[in-house]
Specification:
The chain is built from 18 helices and five strands. It has about 500 residues and is mostly helical. Helix 9 runs antiparallel to helix 10. It is an enzyme of class 3 (hydrolase).
């Protein structure tokens, strides 16, 4: 190792050490605490369920809802998830949630112990719905149930909702390659989850994934262009659809090892974002996630065509490491990765998952991250992810857990209709659209605990306003929780010290 390389590495290590001291990286959390958080992070999805609830439902304050979804269009679209604090079923974030839940089980399911079946049930609640949406009508994918503008004018629990349950779709005439390819990714990833425990279901998932992907690829276009104000500004496809096509193909290849999908990736990758360096991973932008996923192929096989994915994955990791030549992330004074003023924790949970998954690949197949002339080990990635996870669970300047129901102090006013309005069991009489706002504006804690929900989180000064009116910070979402399930599973098996 040359003198310059040693100097760069020592500088990087000093920065990491300083951050460890300043941000309190030494953690008081035990594997038991992480196990408790894991169980709750999965239970949250039961609070987001739409449809007929099963006898195994554990969040008892919820009831059946949306039982006629799709019926006026002569399709069965009962089930699935409400994405956040409202009562709309948005297909793009729901599919991404399902992909990330599946990836969590694929990478870290062996560490989930008694929670793995609950995690698989959360996956299946998503895929059962996505299968319906993908197979109800040939040449069509149903991508949304509920008129969002009308829904957002009401504050009512899902069991009472009386706003229009309009159904929206993409088709050969009105394409939606982004939502379709993400749906294909979700079905393909889930097929891996169920390949041993339910092979016939797994086979149905992957067969449908291939058909939906072909539809996405053949009839190209962004679903935002087809559906406009119905999906925007709620879940516009800001990044376009190229990233989802590459992501979907990558997941089908991982599920099947079908060489035709690898050929597709090699042939189309350069035009679908493979050459881009991008620094966030979310329901909208899949480029970084795809590169990490494909880097596994390079580390396993050392195939030259995969090498660029490793380079770009390293660039992403380096962007997160203080002191690295490529560092460009922003952290709060308390050590939280900060990307956006609205729902920032979605980026924290997705980044933590990618750090841990990449660390796993490096540990399994050998290798490290090259940041300029410095080398960053898997251990450093785990330490950075741990800091983010611990911050969310309460090791932060506010000394507040941002997971509802976890720790001694957590938010009590989540921006969430069902949680904030008396349950149908305690208040059987209907609570109307406008009547519900008395609970929205109330200073009282939510009567129903949305166990495990991770909220949007604090601002760039580590400040958090526990108010339903502050939806940017206080609203939960399925895609915040989904990658966190995998991250928590990882730490359940780790020693208490970082």
């Amino acid at each position: 190792m040359g003198t310059k390389t040693k100097s760069s590495l020592m500088k990087l290590l000093r920065v990491v050490l300083v951050l460890s001291v300043c941000f309190g990286w030494s953690s008081a959390y035990t594997s038991h605490d992480y196990s408790d958080a894991l169980a709750k992070s999965i239970m949250f999805f039961e609070g987001q369920r739409s449809g007929k609830l099963p006898p195994s439902q554990r969040l008892k304050w919820r009831g059946d809802s949306g039982l006629s979804d799709g019926s006026s269009y002569h399709v069965d679209l009962v089930g699935g998830y409400y994405d956040a604090g409202d009562n709309v079923k948005f297909g793009l974030p729901m599919a991404f949630t399902t992909t990330m839940l599946s990836w969590s089980v694929i990478e870290f399911g062996s560490l989930m112990k008694d929670q793995v079946e609950n995690a698989k049930a959360a996956v299946r609640w998503g895929t059962d719905y996505l299968l319906k949406a993908a197979t109800a009508t040939p040449g069509t994918l149903y991508v949304q149930v509920g008129e969002p503008n009308m829904d957002h004018r009401c504050w009512e629990r899902p069991e009472d909702m009386d706003t229009p349950r309009n159904v929206y779709k993409v088709s050969t005439q009105n394409p939606g390659s982004d939502v379709a390819a993400e749906t294909a990714a979700a079905l393909a990833a889930a097929s891996i989850v169920f390949e041993d425990s339910d092979p016939s279901y797994s086979a149905k998932l992957i067969q449908t994934a291939k058909k939906v992907f072909d539809f996405a690829d053949k009839y190209r276009g962004a679903y935002s262009d087809s559906l406009n104000s119905v999906v925007c500004p709620f879940y516009c496809s800001y990044s376009g659809y190229h990233d989802e096509l590459l992501w979907g193909a990558s997941w089908i290849h991982r599920a099947t090892q079908d060489s035709s999908y690898m050929t597709y990736i090699q042939t189309n990758g350069h035009t679908l974002g493979a050459d881009d360096d991008d620094y966030s991973f979310s329901w909208d932008d899949k480029r970084v996630g795809t590169k990490v996923l494909l880097t596994k192929g390079f580390l396993e096989s050392k195939l030259e065509e995969f090498q660029s994915y490793k380079v770009h994955s390293d660039n992403y990791i380096c962007s997160l490491i203080p002191g690295s030549p490529g560092f460009q992330a922003q952290y709060t004074a308390g050590g939280l990765l900060y990307k956006a003023s609205e729902s920032n924790l979605q980026y924290v949970t997705s980044t933590s998952f990618l750090l841990l998954t990449y660390a796993k690949y490096l540990n399994s197949y050998g290798g490290a991250v090259a940041c300029g002339s410095s080398t960053v080990t898997a251990k450093s990635l785990i330490a950075l992810a741990k800091k983010q996870v611990d911050y969310i669970l309460g090791q932060n300047p506010a000394e507040m857990s941002y997971m509802v129901g976890f720790g001694e102090r957590y938010p009590e006013h989540a921006h969430h209709r069902g949680s904030s309005v008396p349950s149908i069991h305690s208040h059987p009489n209907r609570i109307g659209c406008n009547e519900g706002f008395q609970y929205f504006h109330s200073g009282s804690p939510n009567p129903n605990i949305l166990t495990g929900a991770i909220l949007g989180g604090p601002d760039n000064g580590d400040h958090f306003a526990d108010s339903r009116e502050n939806y940017q910070q206080s609203e939960p979402a399925t895609y915040i929780n989904a990658p966190f399930v995998g991250a928590l599973a990882f730490f359940t098996a780790q020693p208490s010290s970082p």
